[in-house]
Amino acid sequence: MSPERLFGTDGVRGVVNVELTPEMALKLSLSIGTYFGPGSRILVGSDMRSGNSFLTGITIGGLISTGVKVYDAGLLPTPALQYYVKTGGFDGGVMVTASHNPPEYSGIKVVMADGIEAPRDVEEEIEEIYRELRFRRVSWRELSGSAVRVHDVVDHYLNGIVGLVDLDRVRRLDLKVAVDPANNVGTLTTPRMLRALGVKVVTVNGDLSYSPSRPPEPTPENLGDLVYTVKSAGASFGVAHDGDADRAIFIDDRGLYVPGDISGVLLCRHVAENRGERSPPRVVTAVSSSTLVSKVLSRYGIEVVWTRVGSITISRTMVKLGALAGFEENGGFMYPRHQYVRDGTMSTALMVEMLSYEKTSLSGILSELPQRYVVKKRVFVSRERLPEVYERVRARFSSLEFIDVDGLKGISDRFWFLVRPSGTEPLVRVFVEADSGQLVNEVLKELLDIFAEVYGSEVRTT
Questions:
Q1: 182 has pLDDT over 70
Q2: One of 99, 288, 294, 347 is an active-site residue; which one?
Q3: What is the CA radius of gyration of the chain?
Q4: Which of 22, 165, 382, 459 has the fewest C-beta atoms lying within 10 Å of its C-beta?
Q5: pTM for this predicted structure
């Protein structure tokens, strides 16, 4: 974790007992409790990561010592905690999770009363309290006692999802879905939700384990078990979650990986066409997502709003502008009728409902989209000369439309690209998508040539 900044892209994260120590967790919980103030009602939960048993206990203790009233939700997905905070009248929430990070990591995420992660200005205020050690100390008379155990969080969350789905339509189908919850808390929600919809469920990596057999991030290289299960069980599709189940990555009935922005496009179309929801007429997504969303949704008069990468930015933009949905290319999908945050179980419910309307396979629906070819590269260079790279890119591709909210994205009818500095590593990410394999490689070569011109011929890429 950077000494300059405590909070990262989404919460505070670090290797347990190395970076995220008991001392740090205590100071952070004291800072969070001080920010919310005495008498605030805070819901605390965690996923199943090594170290979370003591980190959660320390977090609860620190909050109580500042005069906060703590409610303990136990093990659950992040979106379940967020939904209960929003609908239960809480002042905020704290989730102990590191989402998709490797198993040795954990983290602490702050949730506001609306169920959305804390915005940057709140994070900065908590950081200031942390660094200045300005912790509120209440007298023993003001302490709220032990945390109150809350037992209905998951049930309430699942009822909220199932209540939004066309049950009669879904139950007429004979669907089978393979679920890979990464040996974490998604196993408490997605299989149950699917069974409530009348769907047959096959689960792989479904036990709650401190030592997961599948890494927490649902990338293609980590989903071999799920692909095998989809094909061998004859499943309608497969769904994989990250550690805290706020993302959903889908595997189609052929066993092929579906990128998160492509499934996001399909779910947005489902919301607009099948559910008939076309107002507010916009979808919010990060600049790293495919421009297919513009092509598909333009027929419904729906605008695409491009933002910086990061689910918090997307969520807050949706609240500010109003939107039908939001999504990321990593599998995060936000459906505001449920809540304005990523929700892997809700995404899975919408995918099931979409198939009930389309009456064809997921692979059949995907085949209707224009074929696209994608390449992603990491360029190991410093950021100092990136403005010069951007200037040369604009000159070399002068006929394109450019978006510069986060890096530089160029868009044409046949391809798009994004050149963007990483938010967590000393490198630049380059994405290219085109309608042919030849074109995607040609555009990539042009971009890498520009890096070589600016930084020298020895630029390293992977």
A1: yes
A2: 99
A3: 22
A4: 382
A5: 0.94
pLDDT confidence of residue 9: 77
- Beta-sheet pairing, 176-180 with 200-203: parallel
CB contact at 8 A, 433 and 352: no
Q: Which residue, among 151, 74, 101, has the nearest Cα to 330 in the 3D structure?
A: 101
Which domains occur in the chain, in start order?
12-151 (3.40.120.10), 157-367 (3.40.120.10), 373-461 (3.30.310.50)
Please report the pLDDT score of residue 424 as a whole number.
66
Residue 73, pLDDT score: 98
pLDDT at 426: 81
Residue 2 pLDDT exceeds 60: no
- Whether residue 336 has pLDDT greater than 70: yes
How far apart are alpha carbons 313 and 331 in whole angstroms?
16
- In the residue annotation, 436 being an active-site residue is answered as no
Burial (CB < 10 A; 0-12, 13-18, 19+), residue 204, is: buried
Instruction: Tell me the CB-side half-sphere exposure of residue 44, using CA atoms within 13 A.
Output: 28
Q: Can you tell me the mean pLDDT for 189-199?
A: 98
Helix 52-65 and helix 22-36, axial crossing angle in degrees, nearest 10: 40
End-to-end CA gap in the chain:
24
User: Which residue in 1, 62, 7, 11 sits closest to 243, CA to CA?
Assistant: 11
Residues with Cβ within 8 Å of 57's Cβ and at least 6 positions away in sequence, in order, are none
